[in-house]
UniProtKB/TrEMBL annotation, chain A:
PANTHER family: BRIX DOMAIN CONTAINING PROTEIN (PTHR12728), RIBOSOME PRODUCTION FACTOR 2 HOMOLOG (PTHR12728:SF0)
Organism whose genome encodes this protein: Cyclotella atomus
Record has Nucleus as a keyword: yes
Stretches the record annotates as Disordered: 298-351
Record field: compositional bias (Basic and acidic residues): 310-324
Name of the protein in its database record: Ribosome production factor 2 homolog
Cellular location(s): Nucleus, Nucleolus
UniProtKB/TrEMBL annotation, chain B:
Function: Involved in ribosomal large subunit assembly.
Comp. bias (Basic and acidic residues): 288-303, 345-382, 389-398
GO BP, one annotated term: ribosome biogenesis
GO cellular component labels: nucleus
Family according to the record: Belongs to the RRS1 family.
Lineage top rank: taxon: Eukaryota
Biased composition (Acidic residues): 28-67
Record's protein name: Ribosome biogenesis regulatory protein
Keywords for this protein: Nucleus, Ribosome biogenesis
Species for this entry: Cyclotella atomus
Annotated region described as Disordered, given as residue ranges: 1-77, 221-265, 277-326, 340-400
């Protein structure tokens, strides 16, 4: 769980007002933890529940191999009941501390054998949680000698069946599975590096005479791309089974409320790709531009005067002053003369 | 099939994974597939059942020849929807459960021998494989339609299309999107006036005086090009008061500058929404108050003679008559008196020692002599506790009472209490936690 908005604000105020600044390395790490405009890959936290069998432990280990380097496997068992409030809090705490947005918790007990809880968080709080009961599991080790995918390669994801769109639980699960397995979100890709496919088939089947319920068959195939004998640019895929393969059914689910989902899927307001305006290329290949000038408010914001202007103004002022001074002097002289003429002596002689 | 022009072939070779070891095998498989293609094409547009059975036969033939090959023309022609940004495709056609859950008879399941967790359900792996092949083929076809550039190293980098509503799904974010960056007051002004930002300075500058590379900011000793302020002697300029301590003045000026910087930064952060409303004003007031206190205390100390005013010889001071040091010694004695573990309570008193007093011992409380006043006060407290007060609501809203809820609080209880920790081995871990099971009779 993250600090409340009030706590965050007071901490920030303390920092700005000269509080203890974190070290540069820690400051850089904190910056990566802030919300980013474009987000990278989601890290997954893999942990064990109250009691975990060996086979479930291999499930987690395989998940780690598939999802690495964005996966963290915790070895200790945790006393967490995921669908309880306290358990949810614990999961939120653990995912926050380990910087993981996805989590998978494996457990095994008599009531829920081979249990795997997949979930994801938004804003450091649990968003979705699905409990899967694994009916069949083939680990990577169950396919010895066969080629396996490379570390960190992106899978091709394929969903088969109409149940994915008709059943609302499966629809949300589909979203969760894509989020789990897609890896790094990228804009461009070296297509020759694609080396595996994950196929999720959803079908209804009644197990042991009970009512038919949806079962999901997850298969991972190693893919070898070879030139298509039928022609065409795209290669032909050659699929061989590699682990892990999982057949599971849905047990409990806790999907996000519509409000929370809306918040979580809100994208940042990005500037749409702007068309280049005011540029035209003519026949000769010359690019011409068009300038639109706003009305310049000359009176409001005056700029700095150039040195020459200032000096000129100063010189003008001096000139004016000199001119007025000389005028005054003249007048004074004239007055003096008048005085002399009328009274016969100059004014200076009196004082 | 006619030989394709060499250029096209080269392109395709680049597209596939290059591994020379499989080169020979490629040629072999190509030839075989060409032969098989002829027979398959006619029946390709049949129903799904036909496809399945024929594919099985296909697989058998292939298996005998090579170990890691699979039929090229297998897979159904069901069209899928694509979401290429995540390399995802959706085949929304219905599944045939009877086919899927039929027990597979062929030996194609040589790979599916062991299982970590097994199930009694019989699953036809070939059916799943065929669906996978069909879907993957179509997805690859779509991917290869994307525009590609050549990058250093000879790789073709395809530009994937962006996400759109047509994908059919939206993936949630990890954290809410960051708030849009607000321009600070200076940035707005600079934009208006057309002032370009300053060019970046290098972190260290060559200090002429010491001949070292020093940082631009720091104390007067460690700063680069510190100037005349860092020298031991400061001249008194025309407009300076000769009785003022110039270093004190410099320190005051620096403090004023930093306070201004702090308040401006807080104002900018507040207008950007990063801080609580009113926190900048509060900080300004706090800083002003502190400055006032500082000046007052300095004046007080100066009057007491604890700090000698700079620039005036000690013996010339009128106010203290040469007793400059005594008040400071008295203060020092006062502090030392209570500097023991028991705050000077049980220490022996010396001759002429003044009484020991620990400051801020007694909390000033109003003495309510009247019974009714005391009752009223108690009643106020009771109502506030029972019915809640405006102040408490405000604080709760702010999150002040959120203690123990977040991981950042010391008392956080994450559910993994101390009681859950126990050693696994040995009798030391056995406590109340051990499940009581029936003992086996050996």
């Amino acid at each position: 769980m993250a600090p409340t908005p009030h706590q965050a604000k007071t901490a920030k105020a303390k920092l700005i007002s000269g509080g203890k600044q974190p070290k540069a390395r820690i400051a850089r790490y904190l910056k990566t933890q802030e919300p980013q405009l474009v987000e990278g890959a989601k890290a997954a936290l893999l942990l064990k529940g109250i009691k975990c069998s060996d086979s479930m432990a291999t499930v987690l280990k395989d998940l780690r191999s598939v999802l690495s380097p964005h996966a963290k496997l915790l070895t200790k068992s945790n006393q967490i009941v995921a669908f309880d409030d306290a358990g949810t809090q614990s999961l939120e705490f653990l995912t926050t501390k380990n910087d993981a947005a996805l989590f998978a918790m494996a457990s095994h007990n008599k009531k829920r054998p081979n249990n795997l809880i997949l979930g994801r968080t938004f804003d450091r709080r649990v968003l979705d949680m699905v409990e899967l009961g694994i009916l069949q599991y083939r680990s990577i080790n169950d396919f010895p000698g066969l080629p396996k995918k490379r570390l960190g390669s992106k899978p091709l994801l394929h969903f088969v069946g109409d149940l994915w769109s008709s059943d609302h639980n499966l629809k949300s699960l589909q979203n969760l599975l894509i989020d789990f397995y897609r890896g790094d979100p990228v804009d461009s890709l070296v297509l020759s590096g694609l080396d595996h496919v994950m196929v999720f088939t959803a079908a209804e089947h009644s197990i042991g005479g009970a009512t038919a319920e949806p079962i999901v068959h997850q298969r991972t195939y190693f893919m070898k791309l070879k030139k298509d004998p039928q022609g065409g640019k795209a290669p032909a895929p050659y699929l061989t089974p590699s682990g892990p393969d999982m057949d599971f059914k849905l047990r409990r689910t806790q999907f996000a409320s519509p409000d929370l989902w809306k918040l979580a899927t809100k994208q940042p307001t990005t500037n749409k790709t702007k068309k280049k305006k005011n540029q035209t290329t003519n026949l000769f290949g010359e690019t011409l531009g068009r300038l639109h000038l706003e009305k310049q408010n000359i009176d409001a914001k005056s700029g700095k005067k150039s040195k020459a202007l200032r000096l000129a103004e100063r010189a003008e002022k001096e000139e004016d002053r000199a001119a007025t001074e000389s005028e005054l002097q003249q007048e004074m002289g004239e007055m003096e003369q008048e005085f002399q003429q009328t009274y016969g002596f100059s004014r200076n002689d009196i004082a | 099939m006619a030989r394709k022009p060499k250029a096209q072939e080269k392109e395709e070779e680049e597209a596939s994974t290059s591994s020379s070891e499989h080169e020979a095998m490629d040629h072999d498989s190509d030839d075989e597939e060409q032969n098989d293609d002829g027979s398959e094409d006619e029946s390709d547009d049949g129903s799904e059942d036909d496809d399945g059975s024929e594919d099985d036969e296909e697989v058998d033939d292939e298996e005998e020849e090579q170990s890691t090959e699979m039929p090229a023309a297998a897979g159904n022609t069901e069209s899928s929807n694509f979401a290429l940004a995540d390399l995802t495709s959706f085949n929304t056609h219905q599944i045939n459960p009877s086919q899927l859950y039929s027990s597979s008879s062929t030996s194609s399941n040589t790979h599916y021998t062991s299982a970590t967790i097994s199930t009694p359900i019989a699953i036809n792996e070939d059916y799943l494989l065929n669906k996978a092949i069909g879907g993957t083929k179509q997805l690859l076809k779509e991917l290869w339609k994307c525009p590609a550039d050549r990058v250093d190293g000879g790789f073709m980098v395809a530009k994937l299309p962006g996400r759109s509503k047509a994908d059919g799904y939206v993936l949630p974010r990890m954290l809410p999107p960051p708030p849009q960056k607000q321009l600070t007051k200076w940035e707005k002004f600079a934009l208006e006036r057309g002032i370009s930002p300053k060019s970046k300075k290098s972190r260290k500058q060559f200090d002429e005086a010491t001949g070292e590379w020093k940082h631009l900011t720091g104390s007067l000793q460690n700063k680069a090009n510190a100037g005349p302020e860092s020298w031991p002697i400061l001249e008194v300029k025309k407009n300076d008061d000769p009785n003022q301590n110039p270093w004190e003045k410099l320190r005051e000026e620096k403090k004023a500058r930093t306070n201004k910087n702090t308040t401006n930064r807080m104002k900018n952060a507040e207008s950007a929404g990063l801080l609580e409303k009113g926190s900048a004003n509060r900080m300004t007031k706090q800083l002003k108050k502190m400055e006032k206190q500082r000046t007052l205390s300095r004046e007080h100390e100066r009057q007491q003679g604890i700090i000698a005013p700079a620039g005036v010889p000690v013996d010339m001071m009128k106010s203290t008559d040469g007793k400059r040091g005594k008040p400071s010694i008295q203060l020092a004695l006062k502090a030392t008196q209570v500097s023991t573990a028991s705050l000077g309570k049980f220490d022996k008193m010396r001759e002429g020692e003044p009484e020991r007093k620990l400051e801020n011992q007694s909390k000033k409380r109003k003495l309510l002599l009247e019974k009714s006043a005391e009752q009223e006060k108690s009643r106020d407290i009771l109502t506030k506790v029972m019915n809640g007060s405006k102040e408490k609501d405000r604080d709760v809203k702010k999150g002040k009472y959120a203690k123990g809820e977040t991981a950042y609080d010391y008392d956080y209880d994450d559910g993994l209490g101390a009681g859950s920790f126990r050693k696994k081995k040995g009798r030391a871990g056995v406590g109340k936690m051990r499940k009581i099971t029936k003992k086996r009779i050996k």
